[in-house]
Design brief:
Chain lengths: 312, 261
């Protein structure tokens, strides 16, 4: 049984004069209860937009097609009360920059207890006690004092833990974590990922981890989906096969090995609306042949590359 | 080899907070030297003091064998320093003037330091842009028309235009996509080979530091906790803090830990 099933998702935003800019194209992805899936890509790949579409956080005027089913029900295009209900109780999102997503003029206590009193029916006192317990769970010891503090008094790492505590507070079935550790130090990243991992194992929460970091995703997720130019180009668990994923892994510097020159993928990543007719990666791919330029390669056998078999 | 940068017992205090505390190091001619640390380690404050963007509370900085005099530098002194040391910042979106065309960014810097005008100035500008992998069509573009990687190339071209002896790179590849990061790291390696410039590479990313630097110091809470050849530091770290940093880097088989180290 799957918890979330995204199929044939297309997302375009208006670009003026009746034109549309496609950001997400034919994306299909599913997550089972308690499962962790990594959605990996560079800037403009559409990974964040895909996650945002799940809870209706798409840009104004965006045109969405396809289907997003959650717990068996269609949630694409959900509005009003039903959408608020979904966001409040069942699907929660962690953003890259907690400072931009936590109200700076309200205390940490207000931020943490609001959802509990409004949606879970807790009294203010019970909510405060629970907030202190949750803070402890995410590694913040002096909870009572923290509840009285304001966001500007906390470091980025602490504030991200507060955001995670607020997400755990509503015990969602799915957490969408959008680059949750990108703005954090490596030692803090390790700790934050451990907290998310722990909550997943203890509560069975499913997680969609959106990141640019293939190593991080591989180490913390059950399986990975790699996006390029608005499309998923590959699903994999152990060894990637798509030339883009292989190239990305090879171009990343290593802790111990130091080649004279790093492997390079020429050019730059493009968004879906910038891609030509064929494979969007073809202009940067070392294996491109005329066939690659004819049409978008279908996601056959988990890899969207017409040459994957001969390259293996 | 005589050091091009020599920093001795450098200290910086902001109000009550000690940002940099007794930091000493030297960088040899043509060497690539890394300052590794997390946020709050004082690494960026060290970079800013090297450039003269912050005044040290104590200690000395010598660049190209000249000890920096205390107090406000004159404009002649500043121009002289600019020829010695230049910087590339992390964020190519905010470090360029968004109303200045790419060609003008480079030409302004050139005209300030060399007696170049007209065709000669244009030719040198183009030569510099080509050396960082840009082309003639980029000359008349505004930063907003460029990608992040291209902007960082412009920032590098601007910095090397005055032919400095030392280039400080403050998290200069941290904001770039992985595929672009590799291109810029290779470009930096090429430039150093060609010009013999020294690098002071400020970074939190140990893999990047391994690729770009010969020697390194690890900073923690304003102090240098470990120093040595980069390869040795990463293979056989001695200090607990360096070990903790290293073990926090995701890699195959890595598991996130609540208490790293």
């Amino acid at each position: 049984m799957t918890l979330l099933t995204i199929s044939e998702l297309n997302l375009a935003v208006p670009a003026g004069r009746g034109q549309w800019r496609t950001l997400v194209e034919q994306v299909g992805l599913s997550i089972g209860p308690g499962e962790a899936v990594g959605l990996v890509g560079e800037s403009g790949s559409g990974k964040s937009m895909t996650a945002r579409a799940v809870i209706g956080l798409t840009p104004p005027g965006a045109r969405l097609q396809g289907s997003i089913r959650f717990g068996g029900a269609e949630i694409l295009g959900l509005r009003g009360r039903a959408l608020r209900e979904l966001r409040a109780r069942r699907v929660a999102m962690i953003f890259q920059d907690p400072r931009a997503h936590i109200n700076p003029v309200r205390s940490v206590g207000d931020f943490l207890t609001e959802a509990m009193t409004a949606h879970l029916g807790l009294t203010a006192k019970a909510a405060a006690a629970r907030a202190v317990r949750l803070l402890k769970e995410v590694g913040i010891g002096d909870g009572e004092r923290r509840l009285r503090q304001y966001p500007h008094e906390l470091s980025g790492g602490l504030l991200q833990r507060v955001m995670i505590a607020s997400v755990l507070a509503v015990e969602p079935e799915l957490i969408l974590a959008d680059e949750p550790t990108t703005a954090l130090d490596v030692t803090t990243q390790s700790e934050v990922m451990a907290i998310l991992d722990e909550s997943r194992r203890e509560r069975g929460t499913a997680m969609l981890l959106i990141t640019h970091d293939l190593e991080l995703a591989a180490a913390t997720c059950d399986r990975l989906a790699v996006m390029y130019a608005g499309r998923i180009v590959e699903h994999y668990t152990e060894t990637p096969r798509h030339p883009y994923t292989v190239g990305l892994l090879r171009s990343r510097p290593d802790l111990f090995v130091r080649p004279d020159r790093l492997h390079v993928i020429p050019g730059r990543p493009v968004a879906a609306f910038e891609a030509g007719a064929g494979c969007a990666f073809a202009p940067r791919c070392p294996h491109t042949q005329p066939v690659c330029l004819e049409a978008r390669p279908p996601l056959a056998g988990d890899v969207a590359c017409v040459r994957v078999e001969e390259l293996a | 080899m005589s050091p091009v940068v020599e920093v001795n017992e450098l200290r910086k205090v902001f109000g009550q907070a000690v940002a940099v505390d007794g930091v000493s190091f030297s960088v040899a001619e043509g060497e690539s030297f890394a300052v590794v640390g997390e946020s709050g380690s004082g690494k960026t404050t060290v970079a800013r003091m090297l450039l003269g963007l912050e005044t040290p509370t104590g200690g000395t900085i010598a660049v190209c064998g000249r000890v920096r005099p205390a107090g406000r530098p004159s404009s002649a002194e500043r121009r002289r320093r600019a020829r010695e040391i230049q910087i590339v910042f992390q964020d190519p979106y905010s470090s360029l003037d968004r109303l200045q065309k790419v060609g003008e960014v480079i030409a302004t810097s050139l005209a300030l330091h060399f007696p170049l005008t007209g065709a000669a100035l244009r030719a040198r500008t183009l030569e510099l842009l080509e050396s960082v992998g840009l082309a003639e069509r980029h000359v008349s573009m505004l930063p907003a028309q460029l990608s992040g990687g291209q902007r960082q190339r412009v920032a590098i071209a601007r910095a090397i235009a005055v032919e400095p002896r030392v280039l400080v790179l403050d998290e200069a590849v941290a904001a770039l996509d992985v595929s672009i990061q590799a291109q810029i790291l290779n470009l930096l390696a090429d430039l150093r080979e060609r010009t013999g410039m020294s690098y002071v590479f400020i970074s939190h990313d140990l893999a990047v530091v391994n690729q770009i630097s010969d020697t390194a110091v690890v900073m923690h809470q304003g102090r240098v906790v470990e120093r040595g050849r980069t390869a040795d530091l990463l293979r056989e770290p001695r200090e607990d803090y360096t070990k903790a940093l290293l073990s926090a880097v995701p890699r195959p088989g890595w598991k996130p830990a609540r208490r790293p180290g």
